[in-house]
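stage 2 :: seqdesign
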């Protein structure tokens, strides 16, 4: 008998959600001053990095989503218990063949620019995505056969082929007014045209994004007057600003600073399990000056993993608030299949390097975001690889600069190694692997900057999308994980916890799975 796929997906997600809730709630209010008052009704959030763009169909990284999600909404979303629930759509149904998804939409909703939200709004999003291949949106909608407005408030999305992750992925597709989309990306970089609880007021790239409360919001929303996301890359500065009350929330809280503020009566610390997976991509096509391609040899890639001590990495970089990796994505994601860890073994690493003809090592460059925690992690990687004569030069850049570098196609890329992290916003296995390892996702189509190609891996991912039996899906994903783990297109680093901190006078802060902050109902005790 076929298993109830969606029910099991949600059940699995709920187990994770319950774990996150228990962890986050653990004694965090003990000894805290819950009567503290905010100095004003303006919320300020200090983020480690800026959004790459405020057009939600352009940007895709975590900080971009945190900011744009305050202005833009989706048909469905995840709640704090990791269940998929209605948002702009109030219910949905699926056809027998698994190809058509029909959504009944909420009525009476206005976009920030005064346009009505309706079925034609969803059609317009699809048409925009199909017409512009520079948008990250196209990666989603290109798998849709059509979008039809059945009536003013009923819309059907038909897929080209069955895809059991569609419902998860639709939670990431933000709806923008047609008028706003017609004015283009540059307009949306400075104006918001969503249905969300906040409206863009002012934007300084690399500095801050200020929003005002949407007083015409269609459901119960925030009570603060303004919400400002301020970019503060330096960890110590974010901590100091939280302590003095210059900001109300910081994300992330550096693991190394937890003990520093743990006892402060007006600061709450949230510690949640995370889907953030840290790794270093190894460009398998990189050439040395003598024409050799070290990363094309699996033995070299394996050697680098044996040279790396994940346990020490968790302690040194994250003060123990991290887990040793046991596969190519976080165990918080369904269908995770544990592999045999690459425990540190320098002699084995040196032996593999010698077998591959690289006993004397080589020089290589690694790009990294220029934030404190990323730099600390990359420095640790550099030190570890020096043990096998791999001489790493760090190239630290703004995250937006690295986003541009890593979008270059193979023939133009200068990326040799990339210290990076990934977490699928749709919280499912395909989203945790496809964009970063499938051979169809070489930049600029995706983020497979290892330029790694394995036909069996690709086929397993493609076939799994069409399956409905959960045992078959689990088997396919387990095989895929085993292949990538043995092939080592990356150095597998670890999974760090999601740590954030805020003032005790903050109210209404919510979380999606794995600790993504949601500001829909945010408030301040003034």
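stage 2 :: out
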């Amino acid at each position: 008998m076929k298993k109830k796929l969606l029910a099991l997906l949600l059940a699995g997600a709920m187990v994770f959600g319950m774990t996150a809730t228990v962890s986050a709630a653990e004694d965090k209010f003990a000894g805290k001053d819950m009567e503290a008052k905010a100095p004003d009704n303006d919320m300020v959030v200090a983020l480690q990095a800026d959004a790459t763009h405020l057009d939600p169909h352009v940007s895709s990284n975590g900080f971009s989503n945190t900011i744009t999600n305050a202005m833009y909404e989706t048909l469905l979303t995840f709640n704090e218990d990791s269940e998929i629930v209605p948002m702009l759509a109030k219910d949905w149904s699926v056809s027998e063949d698994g190809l058509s998804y029909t959504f009944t939409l909420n009525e009476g909703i206005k976009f920030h620019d005064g346009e009505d939200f309706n079925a034609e709004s969803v059609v317009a999003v699809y048409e925009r995505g199909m017409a512009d291949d520079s948008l990250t949106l196209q990666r989603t909608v290109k798998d849709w056969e059509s979008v039809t407005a059945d009536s003013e408030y009923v819309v059907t999305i038909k897929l080209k082929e069955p895809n059991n992750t569609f419902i998860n992925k639709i939670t990431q597709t933000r709806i923008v007014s047609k008028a706003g989309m017609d004015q283009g990306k540059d307009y949306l970089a400075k104006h918001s045209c969503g249905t969300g609880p906040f409206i863009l007021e002012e934007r300084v790239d690399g500095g801050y994004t200020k929003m005002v409360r949407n007083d015409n919001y269609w459901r119960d929303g925030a009570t603060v007057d303004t919400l400002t996301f301020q970019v503060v890359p330096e960890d110590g500065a974010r901590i100091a600003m939280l302590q003095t009350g210059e900001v109300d929330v910081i994300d992330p809280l550096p693991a190394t600073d937890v003990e520093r503020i743990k006892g402060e009566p007006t600061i709450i610390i949230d510690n949640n399990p995370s889907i953030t997976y840290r790794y270093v991509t190894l460009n398998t096509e990189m050439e040395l000056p003598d024409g050799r391609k070290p990363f094309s040899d699996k033995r070299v890639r394996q050697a680098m993993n044996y040279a790396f001590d994940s346990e020490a990495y968790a302690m040194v970089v994250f003060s123990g608030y991290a887990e040793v990796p046991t596969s190519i994505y976080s165990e918080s994601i369904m269908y995770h299949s544990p592999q045999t860890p690459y425990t540190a073994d320098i002699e084995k690493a040196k032996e593999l390097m010698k077998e591959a003809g690289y006993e004397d090592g080589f020089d290589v460059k690694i790009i990294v975001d220029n934030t404190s925690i990323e730099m600390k992690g990359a420095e640790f990687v550099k030190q570890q690889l020096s043990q096998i004569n791999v001489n790493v030069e760090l190239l630290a850049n703004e995250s937006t600069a690295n986003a541009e570098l890593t979008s270059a196609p193979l023939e133009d890329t200068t990326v040799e190694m990339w210290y990076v992290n990934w977490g699928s916003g749709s919280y499912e296995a395909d989203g945790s692997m496809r964009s970063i390892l499938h051979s169809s996702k070489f930049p600029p189509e995706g983020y497979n900057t290892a330029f790694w190609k394995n036909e069996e891996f690709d086929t397993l991912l493609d076939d799994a999308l069409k399956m409905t039996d959960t045992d078959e899906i689990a088997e396919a994903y387990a095989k895929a994980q085993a292949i990538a783990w043995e092939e080592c297109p990356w150095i597998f680093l670890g999974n760090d916890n999601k740590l954030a901190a805020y003032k005790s006078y903050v109210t209404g802060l919510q979380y999606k799975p794995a600790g993504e902050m949601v500001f829909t109902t945010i408030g301040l005790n003034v």
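stage 3 :: structure notes
- The CA atoms of residues 239 and 260 lie 9 Å apart.
- The chain has 17 helices and 25 strands.
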